[in-house]
Amino acid sequence: MTTSPAATGTSRTLPDHVGVVVIGAGLSGIGAGYRLQTECPDRDYLILEGRESMGGTWDLFRYPGVRSDSDIFTFGFTFRPWEGDQALADGPGILQYVKDTAAEFGIEEKIRYSTQVVGAAFDTGAGVWTLSVETPSGPAELTCDFVVGSHGYYSYDAPYDAKLTGIDDFAGEVVHPQFWPEDLSLAGKKVVVVGSGATAVTIVPSVAGEAEHVTMLQRTPTYIAALPRRDKLAGLAQRFLPEMAAYRAIRVKNIAYQAGTYAFFRRFPELGKKVLASGVARHLNAEAAADNFAPPYDPWDQRLCVVPDGDLFKAIKRGDAEVVTDTIDSVVPEGIRLSSGRVLEADVIVTATGLSLDVSAGIALTVDGEEVDLGQEFMWRGAMVTGVPNYVRVIGYTNASWTLRADVTGVLATRVLNLMRERDAAYVVPEPDGELRPQPLLDLASGYIKRSAHQLPQQGHRRPWLITQSYPIDRRQTLHGELDRELKVVTRAALPGAATASASSESVA
């Protein structure tokens, strides 16, 4: 009989102490585990996962068509190639890739499932974290030297509630993508998807062939670009180059493309608007592009949405779907009444209205008994937080694949840990040398970020406190930066207990 990894991970007892704890067994957590065991083989570690299985986002979201809106070659791990030429991978494929990676490198053996971290308290006198966790057997505690927070940035339990007026009067079914029912049938039904972000533009074409009709209702348009589902150059590279060489070549090409297009849109926003509008017009027409796909902001003020092979535009052109730009007056029993007076009839309303940020993942964070307000702190190199020793927090890029930044952070964590070993440090904490002018950590005007900006640490106006949003720059600085000049290093000999013990020893002598 074979025992599933989830069951095995749940049944294993927790140690009293471990060197490093990684919180979260999603893409970032598995990547952190790989970095720890390859770059810091002298450190033991565990990955604590609150859910019953690994995968994070890719295990949680099960709505139709769920996929990444970043190309999988840069979204995948640096150390394990993505097979095939599919550029925009689907959710089940990404989840299997995560599981296969964890199995191949023995990382799954380090995971403890159904172990929710609810409190993390650091004691500077001892240089140790005490973690409070909830397990199937009840509350427990363990200590560790270092924490890597790889638990994402949004609430898994409570998506954003747009509080649509009259929603309780709706006679049909209300569904949120974060909790998509497995047995939901849309055959022959009229569906209204409220929202215009990545989730909405994924769901609409995915259910358009099943439902009688699908309407994407948006208050504000989003910039949408059609990209090929498959990467032809990737296929050629995989055909003629060794596997890892091909993977690296594809990644370099795609990283350069991401950086170049982002720089173009930010430097030439008006020209960028015309390029994006012409892309929509090639699939639909100029009028549709102007009415429903022309946001009142510049490209990349909010994250750009992509649709593989223009599937959203194709569904609209076939007449299976439509986009309506208007505001909601109220939900009525038969559907949604708009401010214009039109009623969108619906049997199912999908509230793709966004995420609810939860930067701390419900973890009560304290240092020497004082609660840490992350919103009042600064992030060093986009990874460590002022006032919080021995703590690395994974925050991805806003303009490129999340995993690129996550891997840079994982490498940085191992460099910090190795520095601590060399200096026999009890703890390290970033401290600015001079005043910092606070700036928002994430440079997007998206609603879900603006609503929760107070939860996020801030960045400064200069390096290493300024996040560049550039993978090549971050990678170079992470690999070669002189960390001990930027961190306060407290050795074990400098701890109060060590001084007392030393004095006691001298007294006895």
UniProtKB/TrEMBL annotation:
Cofactor(s) needed by this chain: FAD
Domain of life: Bacteria
Coiled-coil boundaries: none
A GO molecular function held by the record: monooxygenase activity
Keyword field contains Transmembrane helix: no
Similarity remark: Belongs to the FAD-binding monooxygenase family.
NADP keyword on record: yes
InterPro entries named in the record: FAD-binding_MO, FAD/NAD-bd_sf
UniProt entry keywords in alphabetical sequence: FAD, Flavoprotein, Monooxygenase, NADP, Oxidoreductase
UniProt name for this protein: Cation diffusion facilitator CzcD-associated flavoprotein CzcO
